[in-house]
Amino acid sequence: MYVAVKGGERAIENAHAWLAEERRGNTDIAELSIAQIREQLSLAVNRVMAEGSLYDPDLAALAIKQARGDLIEAIFLIRAYRTTLPRFGASEPLDTGIMACDRRISATFKDLPGGQVLGPTFDYTHRLLNFKLAADGEVTKAPSRDAETGNVPHVTEFLNREGLMEEAPHDDTPPPDLTREPLEMPADRALRLQALTRADEGFTLGLAYSTQRGYGRNHAFVGELRIGSVPVEMDIPELGFAVEIGEVILTECETVNQFTGSKTEPPQFTRGYGLVFGQTERKAISMALVDRALRWEELGEDNVGAPAQDAEFVLYHADNIQATGFLEHIKLPHYVDFQSELELVRKLRREAGAQQVQEAAE
User: Would you list the domain boundaries of the chain?
Assistant: First the structure.
């Protein structure tokens, strides 16, 4: 445990004051509002909500403002605040099959019910700086559109009809809650998926990329990627039925992976799965690829020693808050530890020098 160094209170207060001044920046420029961050930096807000495990765009925007745009610091703030909130119940499992889709694409089937819905995406932009945004902030009005609603079947259901897709396991056992209980190994798939949802996007992306380069037997297709709003329902015991209490925007990804079969399973397609708050599709795809790589044992595949197949390596290093804490703690005073190391090195050098002198004399 680390405690404040005596005599440093004034320096710390000054550092906090300087931090607040730097956060505000030039006071001749209008201050960013929470609404501006929420509406115009929505992808950053989505990441903070996802990795902070709290769906609240306003609080995520406030955290980004307080953290000066450092998203990991903002995620830390959100997680810390989340621990103060009381729990008064649990929602019903979300049904993504009734998602009101703003974006729904598949790399495996061209013709989908309702068609491919490109939605708001960078995929087809030219990645050229738009200097109009610096000049006047001109906005191009999008044509009127309606989100695809109702029963929107998942693409994998098409493969299910031919029996070519693995059966999704049905287990009514309540999954463990990673936000209330520490991660323990071995971790079942439900716990792994929770950890991957909260995992650092960059770390997860790197692992996912490694599986595509051969480190994990993972040749995947994006069966479906969908983004949209899903109603949240909660069972009210006094009423005897569930009522809708709101809705959340989610990104869901299912990957389709070739599987040549094992001693117990026939050749078929298997799946990887990703589900994340907000429009966070890079994270959802990465999560699905890593999820599939971690399933090698239950599918009877060989472990080729890839990092993405090592559940302990993946799950214990994916949390950016834990990683940041351990990394940045070395900035704190280690005077006593270093002095002992310093004396040890000096002693070893003296002994080595004496040994050299003795050898030269002989």
Answer: 9-82, 96-122+133-324, 332-361
**Tens of pLDDT along 244-281?**
888 999 999 998 887 766 666 677 788 889 999 999 99
327-336 contacts: CB < 8 A, separation 24 or more? 329/2, 332/2, 333/2, 333/5
**Residue position matching structure tokens 């959100």:** 78
Residue written as tokens 């729990």? 87
- Are 235 and 241 a contacting pair, CB within 8 Å? yes
230 pLDDT higher than 80: yes
The two tokens of residue 343 are 């004396």
Name which of 221, 237, 233 is nearest 270 in CA terms.
Answer: 221
What's the CA dihedral at 300, 303, 306, 309 to 10 degrees?
A: 40
Give the span between the Cα atoms of 109 and 256, in whole angstroms: 11
The mean pLDDT of the chain is: 84
Q: Is the pTM here over 0.70, yes or no?
A: yes
Place of tokens 């009127």: 144
What pLDDT was estimated at residue 100? 87
Between the CA of residue 12 and those of 5, 19, 64, what are the distances in Å?
10, 10, 22
**Rounded CA separation 362/359 (Å):** 5
